Request: fold
Amino acid sequence: MLKVSDLSVTYGNTLPALRGVSLEVPAGGSVALLGSNGAGKTTLLRAVSNTLRRHRGKAVSGSITFDGEELLRLDTAAIVGRNVVQVPEGRRIFGRLTVEENLRVGGMRSGGREAARARDHVYELFPRLKERRTQRGQLLSGGEQQMLAIGRALMAGPRLLMLDEPSLGLAPKIVSQVAEVVRAINAAGTAILIIEQNANMALGVADYAYVLERGQVSLDGDSARLKQTDEIKHLYLGHSSDEGGAPAPSLVGKSLGPWKEGR
Reply:
């Protein structure tokens, strides 16, 4: 489905953001991309959506294909037309529009009946949005705004849904609810690529995960197995096996052994 091959990206023609990154999201799969601030996670989503130019970024090598079609040759609208849809970091809903109007914007590419079915599906996933359907987006809570951002993306009928830090700024209880909905979306057949610093949340919804460090994939594997590694426990889950709290070593270049085999 989605295949990123040896992708390198720079900003301002000088600052490297991604260096030889490769990853895959299979049809109906659920993949997490972990990493700290500045690791290159959002840059990868910008590359897939082909919005790098808006941020003075450029893909200098590599390719991104979706069902074999090169996405770097398409504009953002055409990529959405291929049913590759992103939920941006920070929600970015239309604050002055109502919940219903926000959803209507998300379904502009769909016919009336199709959009109505998509809206009803969103309301099934998020009953709270149905209760608030006439309320302006700016008056919703943070959790409700995140629900609306995901719901608006679902109105486009995505085959691949990309979520950029959906847990950011949310209370733990709301994070759990969002994770549950993401799992339900994936179970219904939509492939998921989730970008997160919250490793517990991301590894809980994804089958497979990649770790980005300084613009490179440093580790990847089955989510359940990754969660048990000392590196992930130390760097992302708040555990440390080192006496005195010594920092974990860099993961870049670390051998993955049999995890790479049979993918």
